[in-house]
Amino acid sequence: MSSPAIQFGKDPKRVNIDDDPTDPKKLVVDNHEFWVSKKNKEVAEWFCKRNHNHGANPPCFTVKFDKAMGSPFESVSFSSDNNGHASSDKINVEPDDSKIYEYRVQAPGKDDLDPGGGVRQ
Ligand SMILES: [Zn+2]
């Protein structure tokens, strides 16, 4: 057994989205690179942590894998529910520790944010 090239965090498939405290037009995420395991059939999860009523004007955010690399999942976009939560669907690509799928986080009145994610074994 060879050791993995990348050290993965405790819960790397989870991404929390919040307001940028320094700029009202911007969002921040606490995880700029999620990792989901194909073998374990993991899904990526996004959570809105903004201090507002998530259900008042849904969706809080939409995640879109519409950049050059496309989507590692069956769907291209995922929107949050009334609890400010979104999950990806099934992984649709082969695992590759060197591939980062850049995506967009879009929310009304906010600039797009462009974090990324990848698929591991
Ligand atoms: Zn929200």
Describe what is shown at a glance.
This protein is mostly beta strands and 121 residues long. Helix content is 0%, strand content 35%. It has a 4-stranded mixed beta sheet with strand order 2-1-4-7, with no helix packed on it.
Please give a structural write-up.
With 121 residues, this protein is mostly beta strands. The chain has a single domain (13-120), classed as Sandwich (Immunoglobulin-like), CATH 2.60.40. The chain contains no helices and ten strands. The strands form three sheets. The protein has a four-stranded mixed β-sheet with strand order 2-1-4-7, with no helix packed on it. The two termini are 13 Å apart. The mean pLDDT is 93. Zinc ion binds at residues 48, 50, 52, 54, 60, 84.
